[in-house]
Amino acid sequence: MMGRSIGSLGRQRDPLDLEFDYFGQTVRIHPHATDAVELEFLQAGRDIDMSALDGVDLSQVDAMAAADQARLVRAMGQATAAAYRAVLDALRRLIHPDDWDTYWRLGMENGQQIRDRMSDIKAITTAVVESTTDFPTGRPAASPTGPETTPPASTADSPSPAPASDLEVAMALERGRPDIQEFYLMQVEDKERAERDARERTARDQRQLAAAGLG
After folding, report:
1. Is residue 156 part of a domain?
2. In what ranges is there compositional bias, type Low complexity (predicted)?
3. Which pLDDT tens digit goes with each residue over 102-147?
4. Which residues make beta-bridge pairs with 121?
5. SS3 content of the chain, % helix, strand, coil (to 5)
6. For residues 50 and 79, is the Cβ–Cβ distance under 8 A?
7. Is 58:169 a contact under the CB 8 Å cutoff?
8. Does 27 map to a domain?
9. What are the angstrom distances between the C-alpha of 97 and each of 21, 110, 111?
């Protein structure tokens, strides 16, 4: 027995006609680029197994036994490889196929780092959203400066520090790698943005109910 159809879903969209200047050459954006690429990029980060960080004392990372350090290095290496794959996959779905080689070559010739490539992902998806909705997102295209990751020195009167979060531990382990640190920061930014949007939706619903005398 077949279920009851709810009709046809999906919205036909015209191919995008967007481009950007890249070190003196024009690079086209993929005609079917979508902001969902960034969503998948962020989801790839959330899927990375960080269980090896469980119970890690942030202040004692450098003093850990060699075997424990090796375990963490191996876990972070796997996370780094997953981050690189996510960046490449996202960019290939945002850059026009015929311009991909040009984009990648120019970036390599001009010393672009992984962090720069992630900034490109943000900038392109932001442009795609604005082009398809005619509404500015208000999101900055450039990557924000990462927060200071070195904890302040404690004093005798200072309270015991809170347990380090996965983000703090990951960023401490990736000292000197702002590109990988930025990957973790993007996950946190996305989570905070989703939580903020949820709060705003709840507040908006409550105002509407109150206006209707149902609050």
Report:
1. no
2. 151-166
3. 999 999 999 998 888 888 988 998 899 888 876 555 554 444 444 4
4. none
5. 55, 5, 40
6. yes
7. yes
8. yes
9. 16, 21, 22
Q: How many domains does the chain have?
A: 1
Q: Which residue matches tokens 């996959």?
A: 89
Which amino acid type is present at position 126?
A: T
| Encoded tokens for 34 | 């979508």
Q: Is the pTM of this model over 0.70?
A: no
The predicted-structure confidence for 77-103, as pLDDT tens digits, reads as follows 777 777 788 888 889 999 999 999 999
More confident residue, 183 or 111: 111
CB 85, CB 48: distance < 8 Å: no
CB 131 within 8 A of CB 14: no
* Coil vs helix vs strand at 43: helix
Is the residue at 155 inside a domain? no
The domain of 109 spans 19-142+166-211
Task: Give dist(CA 99, CA 81) in Å, integer.
Answer: 25
